[in-house]
Amino acid sequence: MPAFENGDVTIHYEERGTGVPLLVIPGGGLNATIAGMAGHAFNPLDALSDAYRVIALDLRNANGGGTEGPLDIERTWDGFTDDQLALMDHLGCERFMVLGFCIGGPMIWNLLKRAPERVAAATFVHPSGYTSSHPDIYYNNNIAGWGPEFVKRRPEYTMDDVDAFLTNMYTKRADFVLTADRDFVRGCQTPVLILPDDIPAHPYATAMESALLAPNAQVSLYPWKENDRKIQLAVNHVRNFLAINAPSVQAAAQAAE
Question: Hey, what domains does the chain have and what are their CATH numbers?
């Protein structure tokens, strides 16, 4: 799988298919990788590449991934957004759609804050979000499941650095979707589709609140991961949603030519 250098970051990615570009952000917390999508309810590289140019990347510094760079303690979410936008620049994708699992939810909202003119449509698959019943769940999961292996691989960093990174990322949260407040979501005109879940790491209430606030939102069936038929219905909804919004990307590409 290819990689490219963006300053002091090496970005590892995979692309499959042709047509309108669809950026995919894997789930799995800070260990989110392309390979990990094999264990997701569906893998967009397989499920959607017949119709789109599906582009996925490993998260920076994910254990088991190929994207490596500085631990950006002061720009936690923005560091990941930098990588995503740099990848799309590298591949010549000025305007694109995006689909993200789990941690990809907050990352999509950050993309929509940083580059709203570039994202034509966004699909949130069981997105992460803040829930008062488990306020420290992401910190606890990553301090145990990501941090120790990361500092073993990267001895220039310590667990104190990991603590500072996770504290900035998850404790000093912007609001309910971690990277944006309700006013931003309420004013976001980008079409969004949300496939909710109902576990502490993917809180149903937060997903549904963001769907009710966003003016151009759709919600898929719930629960959708119970069996293969329901998963296929949800994927069909994703395909229809993308098809409706893809022409705006094509028109932008034609205009640029």
Answer: 3-256 (3.40.50.1820)
